[in-house]
Design a protein that fits this description.
2 helices, single chain, 202 residues, mainly alpha
Amino acid sequence: MALTDKQLGNIGAAAGLLTSIGSSMATEAAGINQQTGYMLNAINTLAIANVRADQEERYSAIQAGRTLQRAQMESLNYKMAGNALIRNLEKTNAAARARAAANGVAYNEGSAAFVQDANTRNTFKDVGVTDYNALMARVLGFEDATAMMTNGEIQAELTRTSARMQAQQYNVAADSSVRTAGLLANAKLTEGITDFAKTFKW
C-alpha cells in the first residue's frame, strides 16, 4: 500500500521534529562540554597559581637566608678587623714600652705613656667603628631578609588572588555557557514543535 501525501507530509513533519529535538540536545551537550572546559581551566589556574605562589615563597625564604648569612659573615669580618686592631695596638704599645725601657726611660710615664695613651685612644675609636659596622651589617642584613620574606609573601598572595579572580571569571563563563546553550536548545526545540504543528495534518 502506498503512502498518501498526508502521510508523507506527517512523516516529514515528524522527521523535522526529531531533527529539532536532536539539534536541541546537541546544543545542550555542547554547552555542557564548554562548561566543563571552563571549569577545568578554573581548577588548573588555581592549581598552577598555588604552585607558583609556593615557589615564590620558597625562593624568597632562600634569598633571605642567604642575605642573613652574608650579613653574619660581614659582621664577623668587622669583628675580626676590630680584633686585629687590638692585637696591633698591643704590639705597637709593647714596642713603645721596649724602646722606652731600652733608652732607660720609664715606659709608663712621660712621652712613652703619652704615645701609648694616644695609640689606645685612636685604636679604640677605630674598634668602635668596626663594632658599629658589625652591628649595622647584622641589622641591615636582618632588615633586607625581612623585606625579602615579606615581598615573597605579598607576591605569592597576589598570584593566588589573581588566580582566584581568573578562576571566578572561568566559573562565570561556565555558568553562562550552560544557560546560553539551554536557551538556544529551547529555542530550537520550540521552533521544531512550531514547525511540526504547522505541517502535521491531523
